Amino acid sequence: MDSLYTAIAHASGGGRDGHILSEDNRLDLDTRPPKEMGGSGEGTNPEQLFAAGYAACFLSAMHSVARRLGVDTTHSQVSASVSLGKIDERAFGLAVELDVYAPNVEPARRQELADAAHQVCPYSNATRGNVDVKVTIVD
Fold first, then answer.
1. DSSP-assigned beta bridge partners for residue 97
2. Euclidean distance between CA atoms 15 and 13, whole angstroms
3. 75: alpha, beta or left, given left = phi > 0 and alpha = psi -120 to 50?
4. FRET label pair with 122: which of 4, 12, 54, 82, CA 20 to 30 Å apart?
5. What's the CATH number where 25 sits?
């Protein structure tokens, strides 16, 4: 891979119950386990950060692919749901659901757009074969 950009972030404290800081100081957040996992829920968590990154990246991929397909992705949105769960006694895994809203794309082409974006999105490429990712078109 020919690297175009490298993001650097640091975690301190207790990991899920600690602090994260990006090298450029633009991301500076406390992390806390969610209430569902026995935490206070008073900070962000890795799953929220992953969901935000994946949603933004996938939407960007849609805009890029839209130019090639000749469709209008103005006002499009992507919502990512990232679930954390046990895959066995000792290991945890992730599952992702992406809800794609593309109101200016004709309904017959929305799935084509989402499928093409799923092939070029770096997050999709990173998770392929490792994380269950479900892409759904929503109206």
1. 81, 134
2. 6
3. left
4. 12
5. 2.20.25.10
Total-model pTM? 0.95
The verdict on 54 and 31 lying in the same domain is no
Average pLDDT, the chain: 97
pLDDT tens digits, 43-85:
999 999 999 999 999 999 999 999 999 999 999 999 999 999 9
87 shares a domain with 69: yes
Please indicate, yes or no, whether residues 33 and 90 belong to a single structural domain of this protein: no
pLDDT at site 104: 98
**Total tally of structural domains belonging to the chain:** 2
Cα–Cα dist 123/128, whole Å: 8
Alpha-carbon span 136 to 101, nearest angstrom: 9
Other C-beta atoms closer than 10 Å to the C-beta of 123 total 21
